[in-house]
Amino acid sequence: MGISKKPNRTRIAPTPSGFLHPGNALSFCLSYLFARKFSIPLFLRIDDLDAKRLRTEYLDDIFFTLDWLQIQPDEGPGSVQEFQNSFSQSGRLKLYDEALQSLVSQGRTFICDCTRSEIQRRTGSNRYDGYCRSRGLKAKKEIAVRADIVSDGKENDWSKEIPYPILLKKDGKPAYHLASVVDDENFEVDLIVRGLDLYFSSLFQADLCVVLGYTAQKTRFVHHPILVDKDGKKLSKSNQSSQWNRTRSEKKKIFDLISKILGKESGKEDHLDQFPKDFDQGIFDGTGKISRINY
Ligand SMILES: [Zn+2]
Fold this sequence. Notes:
By secondary structure, this protein is of the alpha/beta class. The protein folds into 2 domains: 10-93 and 182-294, 3-Layer(aba) Sandwich (Rossmann fold), CATH 3.40.50.620; 102-168, no CATH class. It is 35% helix and 11% strand. It contains 9 helices and 9 strands. The strands form 4 sheets. Strands 3-4-5 form a 3-stranded antiparallel β-sheet. It has a two-stranded parallel sheet with strand order 1-2. Strands 6-7 form a two-stranded parallel ribbon. α1 (22-38) crosses α9 and α7 packs across α8 (199-212). Bound molecules: zinc ion (ZN).
């Protein structure tokens, strides 16, 4: 996934469904460094479709974290209020629906009424087995729509990992994959820097863009190592019950990890602009690179 042509724009896309954790901070920093490397704008997108988990303090936490890291996105909301007034995903529901209708009309969706426990009972896992694919259920309220798209046997087949991803959730809201590719197309984002845990999501999203006829099919993805705790578990919002302390020493810890990822000595950087601009993006490509780092 080498990057030969200069991209248009990159983004960070946090979700206000919990307090951020060091893994989010790492992702923000690396996105910033990539934007600076290519001299392209960094866009702040906040994914707020999950209204049930959204809390204003989580929105505050996003801006607080960016300030703490001294990252000023070039585009997107500059405050919670500006986000709520002009950038909420609820203002783009029409775009998501148009994309969904395009997929429906191409026969690339099916309706699914399975519950999590039914899937668990049938498969012994959380991986969906395509049970409803041939059932021909009719669309109605409170029923999910899944993508009828399979990976075409390429290496790194995403369809084994995340089979038939949900596009429209039971609550009638667009699911993450759909909203994300529609937003990236709409905002002309074509460089995405994210954790390796989303590797298969990236592959699916690239295929989804092809079906939607998006220019985003030329999107470049960069996957960085994920941060794990002492038990080897990925840091996540769900095990982040309270606000993580944004101290100077925590920032130093993140910056030292960035040095490690970039293959340089840990330094005295106290601002991201002090990192080399021209790092080798090859360190993020392919397999056999650092995939997990203890935090
Ligand atoms: Zn089903």
